[in-house]
């Protein structure tokens, strides 16, 4: 956002008027961003936000992938948090709309795509990573005690959880559901 000349130029305008104009500029689906940003980057952002919520929700932190009501409730709560996070990121008081005036006609497009794809795509990515953790990572961990293999498998097959772990100052391969590689 701040690397875009239009956004930097808009910092000099009347804040409240430009902010309201930016929010009103959200029309339709598309926002002019490339496919990679909208349909890969934003779901990653949604999954990281979802994992942050799960990590900070003591009643659901240890829920494991499966049919349990606990697991599905935890992931739906994570999707709701991701939706709130995404809405703040796009339209909130400290957002692309308020600081960068995205949505104003002369700055850049704004559409509903980010408000929908971030939490819904993030939810899907979380489910995929949780399934990979359960059905691929765990069996590999049972198969080998090689620390390097275990660290790499946890990190590469769960990139969003790994990034969320780094943001809470844990090792990327940390798991709340089990002790792990080189940790108590």
Provide key terms for this protein:
8 helices; 184 residues; mainly alpha; single chain
The chain-level structural class is mainly alpha
Instruction: Provide the number of structural domains.
Output: 1
Main beta-sheet annotation: none
Order of helices and strands, N to C? HHHHHHHH
| Residue runs with pLDDT of under 50 for 5 or more positions | none
Count of beta strands = 0
Rg (CA only):
19 Å
**Average pLDDT, to the nearest integer?**
86
Helical residue percent band: 55-70%
Question: How many helices does DSSP assign?
Answer: 8
Task: Give a description of the structure.
By secondary structure, this protein is mainly α. It has one domain (15-167). The protein contains 8 helices and no strands. The longest helix is centred in the last third of the chain and has 31 residues, at 113-143.
